[in-house]
Amino acid sequence: MAKTTDSHIQSLFRQAAKNLPAIDQLANNLFQRRLPLKHALRAYKDYLAYRPGSANAAFNYAFYLGKDAQFEAAISMYQRALKLGIDAPEEVHLNIANIYMDRLRNESKARMHLQKALDRNPDYAGAYFNLGNLEEQAGDRSAAALNFEQCLKIDSTNESALARLADTHKFVEDSDPLLAKLINAVKNGNNSDLQFALGKAYEQLGNFEAAWRHFSSGNAMDQRAFPPYRQDHTEDVFRQIMLQCDKEWVSRFEGSSHDPVFICGMFRTGSTLLEQVLAAHPSFAAGGESEFFPRLVAREFPAYPRGLDSMNSDKLRSWKKAHKEQLKKLLGKTTRLTDKRPDNFLYIGLIKAVLPSAKFIVTERDWRDVATSIYSTRLGASQNYATSLENIRHYIGLQTKLVDHWQSILGPDLERVRYEGLVSEPRDTVSAVLQGLGEAWDEDCLNFHKLKNTVQTASVWQVREPFHTKSIGRWKNYKSQFEDVFGS
To answer: What band does 50 get if pLDDT is binned at 50, 70 and 90?
Structure first.
């Protein structure tokens, strides 16, 4: 698919109209290249009108509906595939469970479909793996470990399950059998998740030299697999955002809307912790990392920030309505929702245009602790700067300048919260945040760690603990590595 014009893509699908393998290949190509899926979805719909008994077409249609954020439609189509007698129905139940767990925040239905998968196939390792995810998100360390262990009993080669089991574990002795399993798996495998898991194990044991060695190995693997990070290109994107979304541009979109709170900033700066603190307050509910605005940008502004000037009042009203409907599905009540997707800091101008009453909190932290935490956490290809200390520092500098820009425009609608202040003086820090959001102090905010909600980020275990300052200055354990890159 050398050309990517809309008309060319439409023509290719028209030629493949009654050929399911060809439709599947074209759809996968669009998905891998992060291109709009509308023509793929239409092709599957038309094919099912032609072959209504095709379970495979229903399954693949459901898959891409889910990728297009049409979650209820995807579940309905997966159910159709089940009724049509698709092979390996346990996989269908697993995919439905994933939507309920990761997208619709309905843990009870996710658990129900995982159990249905096991009813179909009691030795289905994937169901145990996802039950482990579910228990981890709920903060039940022992239940998560049991499910990852069961997954490994069925499939001893499942390296991801081994890495996740290690994440649930607390390493206190070098003789720990799980440590030996990790070491052996790292020797015989090429999985960056295992490298990061082993690095964290060594850090718990106080062997910081070995920990950094494995963090570096994991990042080296990812650096080879991820798109290269280009400092000049990233600088240009940030510069274009600030030029496009200046004070005059943002001022065009005055008005009112519902009032969610967006918690954003660099990854690993305390955004999950702050969201949990606010979730303990009766006026807020934790929404986690919503994909609403990143999806909107991918669909409407693929060359973001170019194209923002094409927005009109009809589009803004439509997006505002869609966002409100999403909140209603998640909450079903009037509680204010927090959205803590860190990289929303890139879209603050767009968000403010769509939701003029929105508030923003940017979490910040000593850049060296941020860099250490990012370098020791596998973030994925979309954060391709994360595999190098030098690139992490570069990106943090650009992010800080962009936040300065937003603050100069938004004034009191944007607050900046230091992680160090949050954990060392939580009452004063949280009181100030609540005052800025127009809410009264509530003592339950200090008991956030007792919440029974789900958490779907790398901080899942940290936010189950009371406030502590143990993570301040973590970078000092790796001071020599920082000196190697940046000097003393």
So the answer is: very high
Question: Rounded to an integer, what distance in angstroms lies between the CA atom of residue 123 and that of residue 350?
Answer: 47
What pLDDT is recorded for position 188? 82
Q: Is the pLDDT of residue 152 over 80?
A: yes
N- to C-terminal Cα distance for the chain? 50
What's 64-121 look like in SS3?
Answer: HHHHCCCHHHHHHHHHHHHHCCCCCHHHHHHHHHHHHHHHCCCHHHHHHHHHHHHHHC
E strand residue ranges, 326-470: 336-339, 359-364, 414-418
Quick check: 361 and 259 in contact, CB under 8 A? no
pLDDT tens digit sequence for 330-341: 766 667 899 999
Q: What is the DSSP-derived secondary structure letter of residue 384?
A: G
* C-alpha closest to that of 433 among 351, 366, 338: 338
Backbone angles phi, psi at 450, to 5 degrees: -90, -5
Question: What is the set of domains in the chain, with CATH numbers?
Answer: 169-225 (1.25.40), 233-486 (3.40.50.300)
**Beta carbons of 395 and 488 less than 8 angstroms apart:** no
Q: Which of 294, 288, 292, 293 is nearest to 337 (CA)?
A: 288
**Alpha-carbon distance 455 to 461, whole Å?**
9
For residue 450, the model assigns a pLDDT of 87
φ, ψ for residue 31 (rounded to 5)? -65, -45
Beta strands 284-286 and 261-265: pairing type? unpaired
- Under the banding of pLDDT at 50, 70 and 90, the label for residue 299 is confident
* C-alpha–C-alpha distance, residues 202 and 180, integer Å: 12
C-alpha–C-alpha distance, residues 238 and 406, integer Å: 12
* Residues whose CB is less than 8 angstroms from the CB of residue 439 and which lie 6 or more positions away in sequence, other chains included: 281, 283, 284
Residue 335: name the closest of 408, 288, 286, 400 by CA.
286
**Angle between helix 141-154 and 125-137 (nearest 10):** 170
Distance CA(231)–CA(395), nearest Å, equals 8
Closest CA to 74 of 86, 66, 82, 83: 66
